[in-house]
């Protein structure tokens, strides 16, 4: 699974509406409203690298009100659960 983090600048008065629209796009798993220089962060998860082009420039960037995006591709996923499991290896017994 390929994961991309997409930082999105939008029309400020349309953030809730745009977040809902983006969240409904195929390939988008979550959308967060955030503070800082971007308004929304979308998590895009697709099976193949090529699918990113279909989801991000093909759909997400074309949502009316999306002004600018910046995409970051994840190399590896770490979560609290994964880290706890890794540190627990060999500690039993």
Automatic annotation (TrEMBL):
Record-annotated membrane-spanning stretches: none
Example of a GO biological process term: response to amino acid
Any GO CC annotation of this UniProt entry: cytosol
Entry annotated with the keyword Nucleotide-binding: no
Keywords on record: DNA-binding
GO MF annotations in UniProt: sequence-specific DNA binding
Gene3D superfamilies: 3.30.70.920
Domain Transcription regulator AsnC/Lrp ligand binding positions: 6-77
Pfam families in the cross-refs: AsnC_trans_reg
Keyword Hydrolase: no
InterPro entries named among the record's database cross-references: Dimeric_a/b-barrel, Tscrpt_reg_AsnC/Lrp_C
PANTHER family xref list: LEUCINE-RESPONSIVE REGULATORY PROTEIN (PTHR30154), TRANSCRIPTIONAL REGULATOR AZLB (PTHR30154:SF34)
Protein name: DNA-binding Lrp family transcriptional regulator
Lineage per the UniProt record: Bacteria, Bacillati, Actinomycetota, Actinomycetes, Kitasatosporales
């Amino acid at each position: 699974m390929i994961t991309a983090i997409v930082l999105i600048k939008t029309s400020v008065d349309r953030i809730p509406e745009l977040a809902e629209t983006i969240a409904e796009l195929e390939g988008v798993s979550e959308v967060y409203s955030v503070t800082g220089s971007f308004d929304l962060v979308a998590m895009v998860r697709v099976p193949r690298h090529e699918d990113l082009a279909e989801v991000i420039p093909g759909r997400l960037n074309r949502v009316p009100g999306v002004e600018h995006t910046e995409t970051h591709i994840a190399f590896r996923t770490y979560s609290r659960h994964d880290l706890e499991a890794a540190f627990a290896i060999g500690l039993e017994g």
